[in-house]
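Entry type: protein chain
Record version: 2
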Amino acid sequence: MRKISVLLVLIILLSFVSCDSAETGVVINNPVEVAYTTEIGAEQFAAKEYATDKGYNTLEFPARQAAIVAVESGKAEYVIINDNSATEKFISNTKLEFYEYSQYKVDFCAVYNTDDNAFAQQFNGVVNELKGKGTFSKIDEACRKGEPYIVTGATHYKGKIKVICAPVFDGLLCTDEEGNLTGRDLYYIKEICNALSYEVEFIVCENFEDMFTKLENGEGDLIISPVESTSYREKQYIF
C-alpha cells in the first residue's frame, strides 16, 4: 500500500531570486510516473527535465487539479507545482506532502530591444540592489501566504516606463475578478520602477507573440513575462 509520505510536490522556484536545497530522499520502486500540467509552461519543462534525469515517465494533464488527483489516487508518485501556486492555503487543501526542490529553476526575465543596452544595464543594477535588500524575498513570502503586498510609490517620477505583459500565469501575473493586474511579477516590476523613479504603465497582450510585436514597434520599453530565451530571440533582443 502506497503511503502518503511518497506523495511529493516538487516546488519549482520561478523568480528573480535563486536558492539551493537538497532533495529529500524517498525510496520508491520503478516505474515512476511524474504528473504535470500544461497550464504553466515552466512546470512542463521542469517535469520533463526531472523525469529525464531520473529515468522516470511523465504523465501530461490539461489542468493542475487533474495532475494532483493523479498523485492522490496513486497513478503517479510526483506532481510538479510551481511555488507561486503552492500557497499555504493551497497546500492545506490537498492530501499531498510537499517538499521543496529547486534544481530545475526557471528565472523570469525582462526583454529589451537591442538598442536599449544602457537602460537594460540600469534596470539590472536595480534588480541586484533589491535582491540584496531582500525586497523580492518579502514579495515571495507574501504571495506564498496569500497575503497582500503593498508597494510604496516613489516620491517623484522622472518619467514613465511602458511595460508589455501577457497576464496569463496564475500567481505570477494574472487578472483578478475585477480585471485588475495582480501577482508576483506585478509587485516585482513596481518595486523596480519605483527604485528607478519611474511610473509604470502596463500594456496588456492576450498572447506572447503580440508582446514582441509591440516591443519591436516601439509601443513599450520592455517585456516582463516567463519568456523562453531561444537562440533566435537572443539575436533580436536583450534578455
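Comment: The first strand starts at residue 8 and ends at 12.
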